[in-house]
Amino acid sequence: MAKKNMTINDLAVMVQKGFEKTSTKEQVENLESRIENLEFRINKIEKDVAIIKGTVKNLVAENYKKRIEKLEDELKEIKGTLALILK
Fold first, then answer.
1. Rounded Cα gap, residues 47 and 55, in angstroms
2. Which single residue of 19, 40, 56, 67 has CA 20 to 30 Å from 5?
3. Per-residue pLDDT, 21
4. C-alpha angle 67-53-39 in degrees, rounded to nearest 5
5. Which pLDDT belongs to residue 86?
6. Dihedral of CA 53/59/63/69: which sign?
7. What is the pLDDT along the chain (87 residues), one digit of tens a residue?
8. What does the record list as coiled-coil region(s) (predicted)?
9. What is the pLDDT of residue 18?
10. What CA–CA distance (Å, rounded) separates 52 from 39?
11. 12 closest CA partner among 4, 20, 3, 23
12. 9, 5, 25: which is closest to 17 by C-alpha?
């Protein structure tokens, strides 16, 4: 099989085809800007989630505290009633 000699024009066409798949500076800068925006939004979401977790934790703790206090009050009433019955 005979080799085909490559001309300068053939080489230029090959190089041009290679550059067609290369991103432009503007495209790269746009992508970097979008990534920075996403990172900012993710950081904000992470902070919001941390605040929500803290709030939920406090609400749950407060709810349990109220339930325990209610049970303690009910137990005092039962003890008082039993003390009257057993006298």
1. 12
2. 19
3. 82
4. 175
5. 85
6. positive
7. 567 788 899 889 888 888 888 888 999 999 999 999 999 999 999 999 999 999 999 999 999 999 999 999 999 999 999 988 887
8. 21-81
9. 84
10. 20
11. 20
12. 9
Question: Any idea which residue has 């989630």 for tokens?
Answer: 49
Tell me the two tokens of residue 47: 């902070």
Place of tokens 């000699």: 5
The type of residue at 39 is: E
User: What token pair was written down for 26?
Assistant: 């503007």
Tokens 């206090």 found at: 69
Quote the tokens at residue 4: 């085909």
